[in-house]
Each structure stands twice: as C-alpha cells, then as structure tokens.
Design brief:
The protein is mainly alpha-helical. The chain folds into four domains: 118 residues, Rossmann fold; 99 residues, Glutamyl-tRNA Synthetase, Domain 3 (Glutamyl-tRNA Synthetase, domain 3), CATH 3.90.800; 54 residues; 88 residues, Arc Repressor Mutant, subunit A (Orthogonal Bundle), CATH 1.10.10. The chain is 47% helix and 10% strand. The protein has 21 helices and twelve strands. It has a three-stranded parallel sheet with strand order 1-2-3. α17 packs antiparallel against α21. The protein is elongated and about 105 Å long. Belongs to the class-I aminoacyl-tRNA synthetase family. Glutamate--tRNA ligase type 1 subfamily. It is found in: Cytoplasm. It comes from Asticcacaulis benevestitus DSM 16100 = ATCC BAA-896. It catalyses: tRNA(Glu) + L-glutamate + ATP = L-glutamyl-tRNA(Glu) + AMP + diphosphate.
C-alpha cells in the first residue's frame, strides 16, 4: 500500500486496539467508516493499534478480525499494524524536536507528580522545567521522555462534523509524552503520523476520543500537516440509558453471532443505531451505502434495543436463502449437541421455509425445527392421552386411512385434505386439532397441522399417527 493518498479521495479507517474482543460499539464505528467510504467512492482501511505490546494479544487480534469478517467489513488495502511502524514514529518525533516543537524531559516520577500538583494549584496543566532548557550530551545519555511542546494558553477550536465546533483551552492541556523513556511511541503521536501517512481524510470514531482530537490537532499543526475531518459519534447506551455494560447483555460481536443474528441484520440495525434516513428501518447494504452521510449521525447517544434488533433480524431471516438457513441451523444444532442423521438436512430443507416466519434468531429457528427431527413413534403426554376418547380415536383412525390415499405432501394440499376430512365428518377442526397436534408434535412447539405434517414427511407422519393410536 502506498502510504500517501490523494486528498481528493475520501479515506476512512477503523483502528482497534487488540486488547480484547470487538465491542458492539467498535463494530458500529467500523461500519460507519465502511459505509462513508463506500458512499463517497473512497477507501476503507484498517489499522491495528498495537503499540501497547504488553496488553495486545494475538487472540484479541484474531477476535477483532473474526468479528469484522462476519460483519462483512473488508478493508480496501493491506492491514497496517502500528507497532511495525515504530521507526517511522521515532523519526517523526525527531522532526518535532528539530523544529523546537518537542523536548527531552528528565523529571522523575516523583518530580512529575509534584510538578503536576503545583500546576493544578496554579490553575493550569503540567509544565516541565525542561520545556525551555537545552540538555547536554551527557544528560541525553540518561533516561528521559520526549514531550510535545504545545501552546500555553491559546483557544483551540476543533471543527467536528457531528459535534460542531468544540473549543479547548491549551492551558488545560499538559505537554503530552510522545516517546516514553524506553523509546516506545505513545498513542496520540502514532495515531497522527499513521493517519497522515495513510492519507486518512475522515476520522470517524467514538466521542470518547474528543479530547484526543484536541491533542492530535496540535500535533498536526506542529508538523504543518492538513487536519482530517473529525466526526465523533456518541457512544451506545443500554436500554435504560446508562453506559453499555455487561449487565445489559451481549457486548461482543461474536456474542451476537452465537445468539443467532445474521450479519446483514446487524449491519442494518447498527447503521440505524445513531443514524437515520427518514423513517426507514429496514434497508439493504446498497440502500445504506446510497443514503449514508456523516451529517445524518445523531448527537445524542443511541440506545440498544434488543426488541428492535430481533424484529430486524426476523425480517432478514424471512428473506434469507433457505439453503443458507439450513447450513446455519445445522451448525446451531451440532453446536448444542444434536447429532446429524442422514436425513437431517432433508428434513430441515422441508421444515425451515414453513416455520421461519416466527423466528427472530437462528437459535429460535433451530428450536422451531426440533419437532421435525424427532423419530417416532413418540410417547404421548398426559394432556394428549386425556383427549383420546373412544370417539376421537375412531375419527383419527378414519383420518389415518384417508391419509394413506393422499397423493401429494405439500402443506397446501394437506390443508385442503384436512378441511375435506372434517367437513365429511361433520365436525369442526377443533375436534381433532389439539389431539392430532399432541400426537404429531412429539411434545415440541410446532406450526399448524398442515405445515407440521409437511415438515415431518409422509412416513414419519404415518409412524407417529399409528403410534399415537396404537394401531
């Protein structure tokens, strides 16, 4: 990848720190960056901010990319790992020192704490006594940090595409460390250098980074570089309006996958979470890309609504390819201990189109198919046994004889045959429906009788019916 992009092309980035799983808020940030890049015909890049080597783990990196891959958010160029650019970061710091915009500071930790306390009492941020001193060669051999030499009391206005103009006072901003005493670059320095070198034009991220935008703007200015457009989006809150936490339920993207949500549903829902396009709630990727603009992002925090997410997911399950649903349900069944039989996929292929209308998740869809996977004959529950009167048994035996003559086995045909049967019997369907469901459903929730029969198939239907009637 070339590290300099033309400013005329929009370039966004998602820059996670690999210290844990991909949080749902991070997923939305990645999605907004991806959408805006696609909307403008630009590029979406990923940079792993792993300068904190002690906390960054391979497992966390894998979890982040698994989450992004599941969501379908692919970068348009090679992934950048920040720690691999350490040499460039140090070179950039050396440039600031040479320009008089950074300096070596030799304060010990104790001296730093004392100076910070004195500064607090004086009403401004920490100022190092080394700020305007030129260290000797011997002193430079000693342990020290490199600090940024920022303005002392100017007003700093950071334009933000979501928040508007945000004003900071530089007297409240200490001279942040750019290089630690071990020579490792710090977050704010590395971010600015990397964003500049990668040609990032728009920094779309959570509003918890708003203070960082002020510090980073000063560093941009010190280098003489053009600032990107900042867009700080409000964080996601729980349904109760409090900051999202474990008590609100799933937080990691992987959790939502395990709970049975579809990636297209998550993209749909997360796009709508803090951004709006009129009253549209359901839309596909093409529509989202066409409509999405940073100007549509709300200033107020969004609230995670699991009921609405379920409704959105239910829509995408209903329109999903049935063969894909079979694979997803099969994976869910195997993951919960179900052993695949030779005819399992055949049964699911018949059943899922008939039961998917009421499922909000793949987990629910798998549960809805359990009735069809049981092998008869099955024992009857007490409620069903009590419904088996002499009259009912006689009528169901006639139904069994009738079923043997059916020459079709789709739900519509079966529905018509059942209506003809009860009409010829001169009774309402309520006379046989409950007991027939009890016999056929194997004790599991099941759809209406015609769909139930179509799902379990002719042979299994006859087997369960005969077993229930002891014939």
């Amino acid at each position: 990848m070339t590290m300099t992009q033309l400013k005329s092309q929009v370039v966004t980035r998602f820059a996670p720190s690999p210290t844990g799983y991909l949080h749902i808020g991070g997923a939305r940030t990645a999605l907004f960056n991806w959408l805006y890049a696609k909307h403008t015909g630009g590029k979406f890049l990923i940079r792993v901010e792993d300068t904190d080597r002690e906390r960054s783990t391979v497992a966390a990196v894998d979890a982040i990319f698994e989450g992004l891959d599941w969501l379908g958010l692919k970068p348009d160029d090679t992934v950048v790992f920040q720690h691999a650019r350490e040499k460039r970061h140090k070179q950039a710091v050396a440039e600031l020192v040479a320009k008089g915009r950074a300096y070596a500071c030799f304060m010990t930790q104790e001296e730093t704490e004392m100076a910070r306390e004195d500064a607090r009492e004086a009403g401004h941020a920490l100022r190092s006594p080394w700020r305007d001193r030129t260290p000797t060669g011997a002193e430079l051999e000693q342990a020290h940090v490199i600090r940024f030499k920022g303005p002392l009391g100017d007003a700093l206005v950071v334009p933000d595409a979501v928040q508007g103009d945000v004003t900071f006072n530089t007297k409240d901003m200490d001279d942040l460390i750019l290089l630690r005493s071990d020579g490792n670059p710090t977050y704010n320095l590395a971010v600015v250098v990397d964003d500049h070198d990668m040609g990032i034009t728009h920094v779309i991220r959570g509003d918890d980074h708003l203070n960082n935008a002020a510090r980073q703007s000063l560093i941009y200015m010190a280098f003489g570089w053009e600032l990107p457009t900042f867009a700080h989006i409000p964080l996601i809150h729980g349904p109760d309006g409090a900051k999202l936490s474990k008590r609100h339920g799933a937080q990691a993207v992987g959790d939502y996958q395990s709970l049975g949500y579809l990636p297209e549903a998550m993209r749909n829902y997360l796009t709508r979470l803090g951004w709006s396009h009129g009253d549209d709630e359901i839309f596909d990727d093409a529509q989202a890309i066409e409509w999405f603009d940073v100007s549509g992002i709300n200033k107020a925090p969004a609230r995670l609504d699991f009921a609405k997410l379920g409704s959105v997911n239910a829509h995408w399950i209903r329109v999903a390819d049935d063969a894909r649903l079979v694979n997803l349900v099969m994976a869910e069944l195997i993951g919960t201990g179900h052993k695949e039989a030779p005819d399992t996929r055949e049964i699911l292929t018949r059943t899922l189109p008939l039961v998917k209308e009421r499922a909000q998740t793949i987990v629910q869809l798998a549960q809805a198919a359990h009735f069809a996977l049981v092998k008869g004959p099955v024992p009857l529950d007490e409620k069903t046994k009590n419904l088996l009167t002499e009259e009912t048994i006689s009528r169901l035996k006639r139904l069994h004889e009738n079923v043997l003559l059916w020459d079709n086995w789709d739900a519509d045909y079966i529905d018509g045959q059942l209506k003809n049967f009860v009409e010829n019997e001169g009774v309402g369907f309520g006379k046989i429906g409950p007991v027939l469901r009890g016999i056929l459903s194997a004790g599991h929730p099941a759809p209406d009788i015609s769909r139930l029969l179509a799902s379990i198939g002719r042979e299994e239907s006859l087997l369960r019916l005969k077993g229930g009637l002891f014939i």
